[in-house]
Amino acid sequence: MKKILYFISGSIFGIGLIVSGMSNPQKVLSFLDIFGNWDPSLMFVMVGAISITAIYFIVTKNKSIKQNTDKKLLLGSSIFGIGWGLVGICPGPAIVVLGSANIKGVIFFIALLIGMFLQNKIAK
Amino acid sequence: MNIDFANFTPLASLFGGLLLGISIITLHFFFKRIAGISGIINSLLTKTETNDYKFNSVLFLLGLLLSPLIYGLFVTPINVTIEKSYLLVVLGGLLVGFGTTLASGCTSGHGVCGISRFSMRSIIATLCFMFSGIVTVFIFNHLL
Lengths: 124, 144
What we know:
By secondary structure, chain A is mainly alpha-helical. Chain A is 73% helix and 2% strand.
């Protein structure tokens, strides 16, 4: 029964993305358009999410495992940012958009899975 | 710099962010799992994870998938529009899937969970995707 908490945290996560505006591609693109008509709202998502989560990790004395920064991290993150900047959707919102029955959202999600699959193949 | 005050929603965004935090804390407190969405999706594509682990991923993703429906029932129905062309949607999806897997994390895994644990790796990853995202939007909105 405890497993229902997986479903509940998934729903809370999705509602958080919807309420915050993260699942709205236009809002994400205006957030990234710092030289245009800039909408800084999504900075507050980071502030809200990081503050409460950081307090939890400090209280529970949970430290990150020391891992080196490598080329894969730099290259992968930069590639991800290009895709994010092209459409305005990152992996969490991709699932929310999929659930809102949007045809382009379905196509985006399939492409995302293919991208993951290709990287898994290359990594082997 | 010009701020779009007409669409500025600091309180809603802050509250949404707190909900993300509550979800991340729940998942970590009860199951010691990190709510990195790209990692959770990719766990279904790899053979190395156990079936139990994959089942848990499915439960979380199902909650995420049904969140627009739940929100629609209790608050107001949401209507998502993607203005970009089909070609860009496919290209964007491929890059997001490929990049987050190569970097072992996305906006949630590195941007929220990692930064909250003061991981230098995640701070660097977040700076990278913010920078390339801003450059991409700049090229599309102001150069092309």
